[in-house]
Design a protein that fits this description.
heterodimer; A: Methylamine Dehydrogenase, Chain H; 10 helices; globular; B: alpha+beta; Immunoglobulin-like; 2 domains; six-stranded antiparallel beta sheet; three-stranded mixed beta sheet; 12 strands; about 35% helix
């Protein structure tokens, strides 16, 4: 065991004879060194979040939700833990405003719930989250309703087809077509044992209602009720009600099903929005709010809809505030709950004064978006309320009476950008102090050092205490909290994320992904396109830039907003950072989308330094209209403007679109400039920090084009083509050192996901360093013949890959691992670059020279090897769309965080942990054996001496 | 409603619907337990089955139902790859050919080979059996005294040390004649190799050979004499 920590291994390392075994997760480190924040996302629609009994007859209910990321699942309302979750649509859909019209979640009988997304309907066991059945149709679903008595699920499709599916079996029991497929179905209602399907018939501008027999599917009656104007549109109506709702510009209209009886409620639809709630067949509750965020208003009305008469019972007062409403039936009556940031009020359906008001001890962090409640009236008349509020910051909280019981950080599921921040970089390092001492004369340096040492004495008691603790830690279990506070190996990083809800949040990688701070950007909705990026500005500062030109400078260590500025940039601009060559200043450089326009730089200071930094370099971005890549030289002028002159452009041929654009990571050191072959000859790597990998697709010809460009000169270094590729599926790529890797889905005879790796060397010949050893290499003076020599190999992978990344370490000595997220199995895998080696011998066993180099026979199929490369091990990850890596202080270890929906973080050692003792290292056994050997020597010494003396004497 | 009438009604509704039905097929099957997977309840609820066609629109994914079954309705004609997506168990992948007249043929397929390289034909509602359970972790090799003891070098050392401590006792227990002879022999070997400590001059091979049969040890000594 101790041989693993033999210094010899360091020598072996230096000889780049790294062990090729790709080690994944040790049993004792799993769940300790990694963290996973399982998330659902923010509740999509109030009708798709509800309390429901998981098992019939059992007391206690779970909170079910359907999120904006199309995750359905159950949350335990007691502690906010996840009971189960499932993903709809396999993550193939990005968020749109229309999502709530495509997806919803409904209660069903016998502890089941029904989910609908687009064309798919599924019935789930509410307790375990197992699918009971799934049905995928060819048409989009308009509405579904469960018939308890008939044990059927009725599905109405947009075109007017209606199918009845057996709840137990998932088989179609009957199906029918209403109309000729020209009508648009909108709503299914069940009333008086009859099924009402509401359709919009565009030809005659009428609201059509068809009554269907639930048992046979026969059309019993067809009604044209009231005039349905072209401007009218449907309003989602609760299925319990005997009415269907639609609206024009000034009215909300309620049509009593099966009659021509339509009542109107006047409301200005341009100013206000509303939502219908119902929990019984005779009451309709309408919640109103203002569409504009500047003038928040809210109120609600309760109407009785008995016997074809619409009568207002109560109106809950108009308030200039964001508040949300919910109806609940506790068995002892129907209650209305009104919640805002400060309080929760409970009303009955008879009066406009609350019967109970719970004031929250603290204002909620954001306004509520919607709420679901359970209200219980005790025997003594006391009212208890449990409310699950979805807040405008994207999080879900549960309030019991006046206490916040738990908060789920669901906003993190809607992160649109993330960046690592090193916690230690703000601390003034000893290194700097020592350099300062070196630069001064001997006497002052001595005085400085002496005073520093005296000053450091104050840390002595703490150090002794810590020492004592670390001695104690040898005997007992190590104190994890103390370890992470000390963080000797630099595992502690913050990941700063910007969410769609306009908040910036930081999580701690050393503390199981706990939230460190969270601040709002004062922008309500940020979509992926609205954010230009989050940029690390050094010294623990991050800068968030939005498409609107707003720039936020944030101290990432304590979450304080430092500065907010706005530039008059266009949303199409590209943003990048430029680092100073002298100091540690950084600038944001903004290149407008329009050709010929001036650019910006921010902060507007130290122009001369920026000018120096921009000298002899080219900044590049996608050309106007994404038609290629354009490079510019930039010169700063006064007023924070940049004069841009085009340097080069790479225009795409017609029919090609950009699908992937990759550059080498910012921190990508290359430890060895060549590769030593078995026969001691060297292949020199093609090293160029300005590589850009551009992948374009031509959907017509099913072809992918892969271009390797030099971003300074714009030269095309290498091109390749993949025919028979599926351009509709994602193409992902990663690049590091002298190689790139991309993955796509192939329709060729080797059907399935492919991983293609290409390594670049200076030339095909051995021992030819090219101009690698020259001191001043420029992208411009490379002759045409200096284009790199690429070696490529493809592998078939069992499942499609949605994100690719590469590990980074401090010095780049450790072999790199390629990290990939496989959504179908929910795992974050790592494949050692030594496996993805294009020089592996094909169709024959390796020769002795090749074996010495660590090459082994090429196998086209890369199976999934969890033991060898699953970083997420038994955990189930959903929706990781991006993987980011950063080095730790240990050369062997890279810190990995995957985000997108779930947040997963771990640290990985692609060449095994050669510079740190594993947790399996038993210090006690080591000390014990040293002591034992000592005792043994003491015991044996007199015996041996006596024997030797005896022998000498006897001679 | 009498069942006959119900049937007639159903037939009537079927007749109504028939013109809209295309000749698309249904691909069905189920996951069956075996030695590797004793119960379907072990499978994670997120286990899915994917039918991948040439186009993304033709590709579908379905969750495994509670009884292990899965079903894809209205599958267009074409050649598909059928895979079980499961983190905890590994399943073989299948090739599914749907002909224009709705006939479904299933073959075992071998990944990393040409698509034309078909394997054994399987029955249509296909049964999937796991071939392997995933192992996620590497066990750390801790300090194991038994493993240490089974190391041959350590064993040799133990035998040697044991011999060293036992030898004087054995010598003591010998009858005086053999003892004198043995001591004499020892001394002669000591004289032949006078310097150094006794451990260095310890002839391991000779000792092992000698100790294995005590009787043959003595004659060999006497022969040398």
């Amino acid at each position: 065991m101790w041989a693993r920590h033999n210094p010899l291994h360091y020598l072996l390392l230096a000889g780049s004879l790294l062990s090729s075994s790709c080690r994944a997760v040790f049993k004792d480190e799993a769940f300790q060194t990694d963290f996973h924040v399982p998330l659902f996302g923010t509740g999509l629609d109030p009708s798709s979040t509800f309390f429901h009994q998981a098992t019939t007859g059992k007391a206690g209910s779970l909170l079910y939700t359907l999120s904006n990321r199309l995750i359905i699942g159950a949350i335990n309302p007691k502690d906010g833990s996840q009971v189960w979750r499932q993903q709809l649509g396999q993550g193939s859909v990005s968020e749109t405003e229309e999502l709530s019209k495509l997806a919803w979640l409904r209660k069903s009988k016998d502890g089941r719930i029904v989910s609908v997304f687009d064309k798919a309907i599924a019935l789930w066991d509410a307790a375990s989250g197992r699918a009971i059945w799934e049905y995928t149709a060819n048409l989009q679903v308009a509405d579904v309703i469960t018939l308890e008595n008939e044990n059927l699920l009725i599905v109405a499709f947009i075109g007017g087809e209606v199918k009845a599916i057996g709840l137990g079996t998932g088989d179609v029991v009957w199906e029918t077509l209403i109309g000729e497929g020209r009508d648009t179905a909108s709503n299914l209602n069940l009333f008086d044992g009859k099924l009402y399907l509401t359709l919009d018939t565009p030809a005659i501008k009428e609201l059509k209602t068809v009554i269907i027999s639930p048992v046979t599917g026969a059309q019993l009656e067809e009604l044209y009720a009231g005039v349905f104007h072209a401007s009218d549109s449907h309003v989602p109506t609760p299925q319990l009600l005997p009415v269907t709702a639609f609206k024009d510009a000034e009215h909300l209209k309620l049509n009593f099903l099966g009659t021509r009886n339509t009542k109107s409620i006047s409301v200005d639809n341009n100013v206000h929005d509303y939502r219908l709630h119902a929990i019984s067949t005779d009451l309709v509750f309408i919640e109103y709010w203002s569409k504009s965020a500047e003038t928040p208003t809210s109120w609600a009305d309760i109407y009785s809809v008995k016997g074809g008469v619409l009568k207002k019972i109560v109106d809950l007062p108009y308030e200039n505030d964001f508040s949300v409403f919910s109806l609940s039936d506790s068995g002892s009556g129907i209650f209305v709950t009104r919640a805002n940031r400060a309080e929760i009020r409970v009303y009955d359906t008879e009066s406009k004064t609350p019967i109970k008001t719970y004031e929250l001890p603290k204002l909620l962090p954001a306004n509520p978006l919607h709420v679901v409640t359970e209200v219980v009236k005790r025997r003594d008349g006391a009212i208890a309320v449990r409310a699950a509020l979805t807040l405008a910051d994207g999080n879900l909280i549960l309030i019991r009476n006046d206490q916040v019981v738990w908060t789920r950080q669901e906003s993190l599921a809607s992160a649109v950008a993330a960046e690592f921040v090193d916690v230690h970089e703000v601390e003034d390092t000893l290194e700097k102090v020592l350099h300062a001492e070196e630069s001064s004369n001997i006497v002052t340096a001595y005085v400085k050092r002496l005073t520093r040492h005296i000053e450091e004495l104050k840390y002595l008691p703490g150090w002794i205490a810590g020492f004592q603790q670390s001695i104690l830690a040898i005997l007992g279990q190590p104190n994890k909290a103390a370890d992470s506070a000390k963080d000797p190996f630099g595992y502690r990083k913050f990941v700063v994320m910007v969410t769609r809800f306009g908040w910036v949040t930081a999580i701690d990688t050393a503390d199981q992904g706990q939230i460190v701070w969270s601040i709002p950007l004062l922008k309500n909705q940020i979509m992926e396109k609205d954010i230009k990026g989050i940029f690390h500005f050094g010294k623990g500062v991050v800068v968030v830039m939005l498409s609107s030109g707003d720039i936020y400078k944030i101290d990432a260590i304590n979450g304080k907003g430092l500065k907010k500025t706005a530039l008059q940039t266009l949303p199409s601009a590209s943003v990048m950072t430029v680092e100073s060559k002298k100091g540690d200043s950084r600038w944001l450089v903004i290149v407008p989308g329009k050709e010929g326009a001036k650019g910006w730089f921010w902060p507007d200071e130290k122009e001369s330094e920026l000018e120096l930094a921009l000298q002899n370099t080219t900044i590049s971005r996608k050309c106007e209209g994404s038609k290629g890549i354009c490079g510019y030289t930039a010169k700063p002028t006064v007023g924070g403007r940049l004069i841009l002159s085009p340097a080069w452009s790479f225009r795409l041929p017609a029919g090609q679109t950009i699908v992937s654009l990759t550059t080498r990571p910012v921190h990508d050191p290359i430890a060895s400039i060549g590769k030593v072959m078995g026969n001691r000859s060297v292949m020199y790597k093609y090293i160029n920090p300005h590589l850009v990998l551009l992948i374009t697709a031509s959907p017509k010809t099913n072809t992918l084009y892969i271009y390797l460009l030099d971003s300074i000169s714009g030269a095309v270094l290498n091109t390749s083509i993949q025919t028979e590729a599926d351009t509709s599926r994602p193409v992902v790529a990663t690049m590091s050192e002298n190689w790139y890797i991309y993955s796509f889905y192939s329709k060729s005879i080797a059907k399935g996901a492919h991983i293609v790796v290409t390594d670049f060397y200076t030339s095909q010949a051995r021992n030819d360093p090219g101009n690698l050893l020259n001191e001043n290499i420029s992208s411009y003076n490379q002759p045409r013949s200096a284009t790199p020599y690429g070696i490529s190999q493809a592998f078939v992978f069992p499942h499609p890959i949605t994100s690719l990344a590469t590990t980074t370490t401090r010095q780049g000595i450790t072999t790199r691992s390629v990290l990939l997220f496989v959504p179908r199995i929910g795992s974050l895998l790592s494949i050692n670059k030594r496996i993805l080696e294009p020089r592996r011998p094909v169709g024959r066993d390796p020769t002795n020279d090749e074996k010495e180099e660590g090459l082994f026979k090429y196998e086209p199929f890369l199976g999934i090897d969890h033991q060898g490369g699953s970083l997420s091990h038994a955990r189930e990850l959903i929706g990781v769309s991006s993987i980011i890596t950063t080095p730790s202080l240990l050369e062997s270890t890279s810190i990995v965080v995957g985000w997108g929906l779930d947040i997963f973080g771990t640290r990985t050692s692609p060449s095994a942990a050669f510079d740190v003792l594993g947790s399996g290292f038993n210090k006690l056994a080591l000390i014990g054996s040293v002591v034992a050997v000592g005792f043994g020597t003491m015991f044996l010494r007199p015996m041996v001496r006596k024997k030797q003396i005896g022998q000498r004497w006897s001679q | 409603m009498p069942p006959l009438q119900l049937l007639l009604l159903r037939l009537a509704s079927l007749v109504l619907v028939l013109p809209f039905l295309t000749s698309a097929a249904t691909v069905a099957g189920s996951i069956k337990p075996n030695v590797i997977l004793p119960s379907l309840a072990i499978l994670p609820p997120s286990t899915t089955v994917t039918l991948s066609g040439d186009l993304l629109e033709d590709s579908r994914t379905s969750h495994i139902f509670a009884n292990g079954a899965f079903r894809f309705q209205d599958v267009n004609p074409g050649s598909y790859l059928l895979e079980v997506n499961c983190r905890t168990h590994i399943f073989p992948s299948m090739r599914v050919d749907v002909s224009p007249d709705g006939l479904v043929e299933i073959y075992q397929t071998f990944r990393g080979n040409e698509w034309t390289n078909k394997g054994e034909r399987k029955p249509h509602p296909i049964d999937f059996y796991p071939t392997k359970a995933s192992e996620f972790y590497i066990a750390r090799e801790g300090f194991n005294p038994m493993k240490l003891l089974s190391n041959p070098m350590i064993l040799i050392a133990i035998v040697a040390i044991g011999g060293m401590t036992l030898m004087p006792k054995m010598v003591e227990n010998m009858d005086p004649e053999t003892r004198a002879e043995f001591e004499k022999q020892q001394q002669s070997s000591m004289l032949a190799n006078p310097q150094g400590n006794p451990l260095q001059s310890f002839d391991m091979a000779g000792y092992l050979a000698g100790s294995s049969s005590k009787k043959s040890g003595t004659p060999s000594g006497s022969k040398r004499k």
